[in-house]
Amino acid sequence: MGVSHQRRLLRRPHSAGRDRRSFRWAGGPCVSPARVSGRGWYRHERLRRVGGDGGRLDRAALDALRPPDGAALQLAYTIAGDTASGALTLPDGTRYPLVGVRFDSAAASLIAPTFVPVSGSQPPVVMLRLDDTPGTDRDFLQRLKARGLTAEVAVPTRLVGRGNNLTWSELGQWRAKGMGIVMHSRFHLKSSANAQHLIAEIVGGFAEMRAHGFATNVFVQPGTWGDSIYFDAPQKLATWRGALLRTFATVSECYAYGPLLTRSAISPLGIGHVTISDGASDARIRQYWDVAQRPNHATVILVHTLRLRAKDRLDWFLNLVATAQANGTVRVVANSQDLFAASPPPREPPDSVGDSGIQIQPQTP
Ligand SMILES: [Zn+2]
After folding, report:
1. Distance between terminal CA atoms of the chain?
2. Ligand 1 geometric centre to CA of 184 (Å)
């Protein structure tokens, strides 16, 4: 169905009309305009809904908004289900595609708190990450625990408990043992995803985490996402999609920044990772580890436990990490926010860890 009808309205004072429901654009309940990148973003406005019958699945509206300078902005949209899509057009003709998804008003409380990364020199910090909650995580988590190590577990909310996957109850038990539990979309689809899908997977995923008692503001991007939601460059975050992430996440573990850079060269909203499963050789893993131990580095080390050739495949590496942790040469955290947090008082700096000059290519998913 196309545009079924259009009306043209002048924006009225807020007291006009009984229908006070508002649409908030580009990301569901309330994307903070301050977090939207780019120029010319129109400030949040309460819009009078056109039609008002609330029962049509497909309709259109066209509002003319008059900001104080008198210039008119045009907003046109169609609604299908709970999603509005359309465009805001500036007086100069610049057109901004928009999408809005209606969520329960409780979603507004999912907005991430302000997160201030610590800058300056820091001892090296690493984080092991287990993705997707496969049943093979059970054995690996025991191997971590046996060594006094912790990890971040990235959870696709709708896959928890499915088949042999970890259950919410197990996740609670592992959290009690120090593991971090974070959000990894809802369905982990192989998708290039339209706007509605992205919003539902981000906001919906955070809402479901909280509903299960695992409130978090950390998002891990599924490697199965493509095109405009495959966040493999900082520029891809300078969009409304990035604004969505900035609104709801303190840290987005994506692919936008190389995984082995200094902390000052990466952003919490796009930190990458290295993968030490999926056939990575011992030599490659040792290269990663060499860089990760350098001062002022913050490194995410991903393990797909499902793709380990043998359960004990990485025991040697876990022993290295545990030894470094015990010696205080590396700090191991279980939540990616802590990669950017202040360190405890420094211990003696390692004297054997220096710049080896090894060049390592960026990781692909
Ligand atoms: Zn995944």
Report:
1. 38
2. 7
Q: What's the token pair of residue 115?
A: 């997160």
Note whether 84 and 99 are within 8 A (CB): yes
Q: What CA–CA distance (Å, rounded) separates 326 from 178?
A: 16
C-alpha angle 348-354-358 in degrees, rounded to nearest 5: 150
User: How many angstroms is it from 188 CA to the middle of ligand 1?
Assistant: 7
235 CA → ligand 1 middle, Å: 22
Q: Give the Å distance between the CA of 183 and the centre of ligand 1.
A: 10
Q: What confidence score (pLDDT) does residue 82 get?
A: 67
| pLDDT tens figures, 115-165 | 888 876 788 999 999 999 999 999 999 999 999 999 999 999 999 999 999
Report the C-alpha gap between 240 and 289 in whole angstroms: 35
The span from the CA of 132 to the CA of 275, in Å, is: 14
C-alpha 251 to ligand 1 mean position (Å) = 16
Question: What's the fold here for domain 125-340?
Answer: TIM Barrel (3.20.20)
Residues by chain with Cβ below 5 Å of ion ligand 1: 131-132, 222
* Cα 104 to middle of ligand 1, angstroms: 27
Measure 52 CA to ligand 1 centroid, in angstroms. Answer: 42
Q: How confident is the model at residue 348, as a pLDDT?
A: 54
Ligand 1 geometric centre to CA of 353 (Å): 32
C-alpha 136 to ligand 1 mean position (Å): 14
Domain boundaries, the chain: 3-110, 125-340
For the whole model, what pTM was predicted?
A: 0.72
What is d(CA 60, CA 183) in angstroms, rounded to the nearest whole number?
35
Residues lower than pLDDT 70 in the chain: 1-71, 81-82, 103, 105-106, 120, 193, 344-365
Q: Mind listing the pLDDT tens digit for each residue in 18-49?
A: 333 333 333 333 333 333 322 223 333 333 33
Q: Enumerate the H helices of the chain as residue ranges.
A: 137-146, 168-176, 195-211, 234-237, 240-248, 282-292, 315-327
User: Average per-residue pLDDT in the chain?
Assistant: 78
